[in-house]
TrEMBL record:
It comes from Lactobacillus crispatus. Residues 14-35 form the YSIRK Gram-positive signal peptide domain. Residues 71-106, 153-173 have a biased composition (Low complexity). This is LEA family epithelial adhesin. Residues 107-125, 132-146 have a biased composition (Polar residues). Coiled coil: none annotated. It holds the Pfam family YSIRK_signal. The chain crosses the membrane at residues 20-38.
Amino acid sequence: MKRLKFLETKRTPRYSLRKFSVGVASVLLGVTIFGINFTNHSVKAATTESVDNSSANSRLQQTSAAVLTTAEQTNTQQATSATETVQQTSASNNTTANNSKEAATTPQSSPETQGSADTDINSSAAKLAATVDQNNTNTQKATSATEKVRQGSASKNATANNSTEAATTSQSAPKTQSSADTDIRSLDIRSLTAISAARLAAKNLLAMPDTDGNAAGTPGTVTGTDRNAAVTVDKDNINKQLAKENQKLANEHNLSSSDNYSSNIYKGKDGKYYKIVTIYGNDYVYHAADIQANGTAFGQYATKAEDTKNNINISKEDLGNGKTRWTVVFFPHKGLQNVGSNLSGLSSAKFGIALTNDYQIVGDVDMDITTDPNQTFVAHTFKDNSNRSTDITVSNPSPEVKFSFNPNTDVDPNTGLINSKTMPAYNNQYLQGPYYFNTDAYAGRRNLWQTYFEDGVEYNNAYDENIPYLGGNHDFHLNNFEIKNKTGVDGAKQGNKIIYDTLGYRLNSKNANPNGVFSSDNFNQAMEFKSQGVTDQSQFSSYKISFTTQHTDSHEVELTTGPKNQQFSGIAANIYSFQNKYYNMFSRLYGEQRALNPAGVVKQANEVVSGWGPAKEAMGQIKQDYLNNAQINVLWNKILNNITDHDAVNNIITEGNSLNDAMKNLGNSIGQYDPDGSFADHKVDTTKASDRYKYANPDKQEAYDNATEVTKALINKDTGTYADQATVEKLTEAENKAWNELKVVLANKITPKV
């Protein structure tokens, strides 16, 4: 299936705030540097975060700055407000800094009133002794009884305490592009912001106003009580505030968090929670899915959804930014057992997991096997590179055995056989022929379909029909399975075939289930396993499989739909075993499904979330040509959270349009948006090719480079961080000042004679 190319960065968290502790002040890009005005842009009280610094990269090492590391630094921020008021006006700031004498430090910029950018950009890097926090704890608390959008003034207090018993560290950052002529969309925010945050802070490029939200009346628009955009960062310098709340709601309501702020989770009009993905202005509504489907072979007609749950246990933990840790336990009672039935040991029982293509496995897949040590069983073991098995009796099975494999390094790319030191395919007493298939190549597609979906038996590997599957046939017959849920499957009912076999149609030009529900073509990877045991000496074991995935919202919305708009995203865990004269065929689909009404029509966001329609209309009144996506996201949440307050919404619209104009001016400070050539001499390539740059003093060159890197990072549409209007204007002023101060120094131009 051809994938549409969205402009998002796949599996890369977006709008991240880069955190560096430099000198005596902890510097947040988009907060101290960008002066981000997160005065409760969205909803809940700020959370408490413990963060560690990640290293910056090698380019910082190339500067002449002496970089030191503080042993510990704790920054506790608390804010309490009964009524928060907003106005863009002057603020008074009080700053206290306490520093121990054990290390020489250069005080960094303290908060000051807006409109001031007269920090000395010319201070040389040689004078810098920057402290980089390695153990920084940032605690933010905010309580608000009444939050409204008004005009007012602000007073600010800031206290910084830094211990400076330090050891020297080295920091590095990848080289970044320095030309505005380069496509700004392609710039790497990680390199740009990492360099710019540390270098600009160290050089006191800007003295920003207090924007951490801990001062009463911080300029900005106060929002409602459903979402919080206050500043919190993790050890990788990723903005975690909206993402942190997104993660919390994902865990509470069994949904997946956004990988790049393209989705949010909302409480619907019906009291249930929904995830709404917005791509190019289109909204897609999803809710949690836990679906049971069982086979229709002899003896299966009487099984129920509860029997499936009794044999397959699934849980997941959302790790934030689209990452999920899945745990699937097959045979949790150490054997097959339907509700109210006796426990049966395993006899070559097949079990596996297929994933839809909006999830990709990150790192290793872990398997933990727990076995009844008092139950002997027969194992079919295989010598290296042999398909002939030798039966052995395992008389003293280990109570616990651990295996793992990496899909990228431990799988035969042709046959799909998993074979490594950590999960051997041969001489394995607990597994027969472990396989991992993906749909990248024809053999993988064919293997995945004929083992997982086809309602038939295939003994030979699709890569080479002369090679049998190790351990015999691997088949799950998912095309045969029918939904057992009485309710809860949108666009389907109990008894419908669970699979709409589009993958089979693609491979065989025929669809085995034209009236099925969820498309088989959406499953692009599957891991498949087989137990040991025979009828009279079966294996009493439980298999727990754990792995981490990265989810991408834009891939989810493009998943193939069923004949009635049905769409499923997540994993399908399956069991197939014929033993004791009965078939055991269970499937559990766990994840998300597209929200449909009873007629099978997709639900619109405005049908689900209160105020969505008016908020979209209001957002349409904000010009967004020059705003980055992080700024658009913040403005959207502010509008949605204040949609019942007409004056507040009008203020946010005005704020957004002014910010758009400010971002245009910032871009033009490096000649980015210049159709008539008015700013042609400000283009970075042009500037760096000029004598005024080439023969300027090094500190002036560095000041210009620093300012330009921050500018390019911020105007990046896809990866730029949030910054308010005051911050953008200050950065524009700094960029222009740095450009204007580039002057030819005659001594630099004259080449001494040798």
